Amino acid sequence: MSLRQIAGRKVLVCADEGPTLAEYANLTGLIGDLFGEGGVELVAIPLARLGPDFLRLSSGVAGEVLQKLVNYHFQVAVLGDTAAAQAASGPLRDFVRESNRGRTVWFVDDLAALEAKLAAARR
Questions:
Q1: pLDDT tens, 33-57?
Q2: Model-level pTM?
Q3: What residue segments make up the domains of the chain, in order of their start?
Q4: Residues facing 4 on adjacent strands
Q5: Treating both helix axes as pointing N-terminal to C-terminal, what angle do 24-37 and 61-71 enclose, rounded to 10 degrees?
Q6: For the structural domain made of 2-122, what CATH number should be given?
């Protein structure tokens, strides 16, 4: 994990490698880390850290993970290419599109795309 200032926001960026955050204990540990850092507004999580079922909406994994983080008032950015999964699933495509229209959960390709989205949101 690393702390970064991106477009004036304090962001905790999770490492590409590590335990899956779809597991309750690991997600709870991440939330503890977020509070321990103080002032973190947004957590950026690589898609690979969310487990193989995250993009399969019927599994409920995405809902559980995202809702828990949002309930604790953290904005979430999922980092990674979801294009193939969206092409295969209309509901996922709709979920990603609607999420990206809001301010709570975003799906972006990488940190550069996150920075651009945060900068645009400031305007």
A1: 999 988 899 999 999 999 999 999 9
A2: 0.93
A3: 2-122
A4: 11
A5: 20
A6: 3.30.750
